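Title: Comparing notes on inverse folding

I've been comparing how different people in this forum approach sequence design from structure. To keep things fair, I'm posting one structure and asking everyone to reply with a full sequence. Here's the target:
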């Protein structure tokens, strides 16, 4: 297990990227100029790393060290190559189960989802390279250590992951309130991927258009939605229920 590591300084962050360090996010001082900053920005675009441009005051709060306008947070886990992971799992398991998280941003929700995924036999979790919650100490704690047991891969866009899984014979189902089809009227017994959306907007419209099915969880009360980690648990345990019969 690696610890969460803070890398500061332009050259140090560039070298960490070249060394394929698992970087969750980079904070860059607004208005930063120079050849090294341009080199860093090029690497960020090439690798699809999440980055935010922030005032120098935020960087000063993040570290007392000489940050030179750049701070990176590296992940305590190593992320898998998406296509290679799908190929390996599909070749070794007849009915794999994948979980795609379309923009989950809260680290505790992320951790709770990972914990449930481990308990329900999810073979891999797929997240986008940008816009997803990082793996932090809170993620690890909420997951009860499951973050070290379930393979997690990053993809440039969730839509790319959907297309690739479909081409690999995986049935992709999105959970959304924007449908009339119940989760209890669909079969999850074959190779399946479930897509869960972000806390605020749910599964994005572009993803909803390309999945094989969109299903909803029946809600009988007056509140119109569930917490995403709770909804994910309901969906995953429906898979478990069906596969045990």
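Reply #1:
Here's my take.
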């Amino acid at each position: 297990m690696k610890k969460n590591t803070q890398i500061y300084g332009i050259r140090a962050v560039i070298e960490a990227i070249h060394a394929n360090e698992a970087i969750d996010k980079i904070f860059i001082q607004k208005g930063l100029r120079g050849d090294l900053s341009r080199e860093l920005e090029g690497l960020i675009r090439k690798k699809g790393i999440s980055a935010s441009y922030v005032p120098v005051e935020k960087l000063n709060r993040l570290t007392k060290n000489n940050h030179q306008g750049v701070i990176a947070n590296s992940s305590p886990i190593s992320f898998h190559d998406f296509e290679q992971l799908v190929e390996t799992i599909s070749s070794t398991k007849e009915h794999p189960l994948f979980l795609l998280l379309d923009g989950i941003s809260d680290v505790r929700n992320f951790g709770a989802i990972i914990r449930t995924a481990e308990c329900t036999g999810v073979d891999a979790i797929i997240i986008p390279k940008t816009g997803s919650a990082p793996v932090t100490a809170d993620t690890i704690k909420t997951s009860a250590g499951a973050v070290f047991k379930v393979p997690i891969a990053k993809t440039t866009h969730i839509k790319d992951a959907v297309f690739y899984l479909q081409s690999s014979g995986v049935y992709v189902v999105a959970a959304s309130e924007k449908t009339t089809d119940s989760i209890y009227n669909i079969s999850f017994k074959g190779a399946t991927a479930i897509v869960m959306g972000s806390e605020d907007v749910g599964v994005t419209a572009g993803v909803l258009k390309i999945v094989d099915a969109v299903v909803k969880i029946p809600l009988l009360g007056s509140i119109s939605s569930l917490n995403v980690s709770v909804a994910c648990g309901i969906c995953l345990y429906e898979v478990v229920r069906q596969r045990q019969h």
